[in-house]
Inverse folding.
């Protein structure tokens, strides 16, 4: 394992919170926007609906095979 010359606890990157804890990663990553992605809401709704259908089928399958809604708990 090699250690780089850059120290993670230097004063320039060190932030102390109001509780006295040190935060060495205070910077947020910049937000990236994709200008060509215009149909995001429609695609998100389709994906959510499909995952809900898969969950419902899994719920029915577990109920039919074990007579329990959540196997191992009830």
């Amino acid at each position: 394992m090699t250690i780089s010359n850059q120290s993670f606890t230097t004063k320039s990157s060190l932030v102390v919170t109001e509780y006295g804890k040190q935060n060495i990663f205070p910077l947020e990553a910049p937000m990236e926007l994709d200008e060509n992605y215009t149909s995001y809401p429609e695609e998100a709704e389709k994906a959510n609906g499909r995952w809900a259908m898969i969950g419902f089928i899994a719920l029915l399958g577990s109920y039919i095979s074990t007579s329990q809604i959540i196997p191992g708990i009830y």
Observations:
- The first strand starts at residue 15 and ends at 16.
- The longest helix spans residues 40-66.
- Residues 1 and 7 are 15 Å apart (CA to CA).
- Confidence is low (pLDDT under 50) at residues 1-11.
